[in-house]
User: Fold this.
Amino acid sequence: MLRDTVKIRIQSGRGGAGSMSTFKNRSTGGDGGRGGKVYILGNENIYDLSSFIQNKTYKAEDGKSGEKKNKTGAIGKDLVLSVPLTTEVIIDGAVAYKITKHGQKELVLKGGLGKPGNISIKRNPKLEYKIFNSEPEKKVAELVLKLKSDIIFIGYPNAGKSSLLNSLTDAKAKTASYAFTTLDPQIGFMDGLKLMDLPGLIEGTHEGKGLGTRFLKHTESAKLVAHFISLENSDPLKVYESLRKEIKSISEELYNKREVIVLTKTDEIKEEAVERAERLFKNKGLEVVSCSIIDDKSIEEVKRRFKELV
Assistant:
């Protein structure tokens, strides 16, 4: 199952203590080492947030204590948390970082400062009274993955979205004759375009029914919304209007995106009925294309229209 949201606790390393070592009444103690920092790193080879455990604390290493003979303690090892691209890092209720590029590295928490040893204090007595923030920084971070796509597929269950995605792309989305076979967004690539099939809607999705609206965040980047309607329905226009009403209740932004209606399963009805269904939408000034996954010519037409509209 796709993990696209997780809340974790992060903590930098504590600064090491300064050494108060002496030899024959001479100061010999070194400074403590700085605590490790916490970074977020973008990685194009990671696809979701499943490597993170909800509410787990991820800690950088503490700095080591100073040692005798003026040896500074070792710096604590930094913690680097790798996340997929298009991940938002939310701290204190606001988006602190947007990770969009491979190799993008953001400093999130600084390590605690190492405390001075007695040699440093002897050289600069004021250090003994200076407050050194050796404590680690601690934050709660929410990681939110927002998948990017050019075209998103939306429709009620069993509208043929997954089947068409498999026909147009290299995707291997699960297909079956029962509702909610698509539980997570499915992605495929078609001639440089990224297509995403979202889990099916039902009436009341905006109220949390069915799979709810948790995948809404993945629609933000889409250039085109493909509304899927099976021609097994006796009144496809009524289905479309119901679908649009549900989408408007979910998100005005999604509702206002450019759209195309995809009439599926044309092999289930006569050609004249397919033409009548297309006219219903064309008469309303809507973009419409019809297809069947067993008709290669219609699949090529869908591909052409998608590329033309994007």
User: Anything to note?
Assistant: The first strand starts at residue 5 and ends at 11. The helical segments are 118-123, 161-168, 236-250, 252-255, 271-282, 296-309.
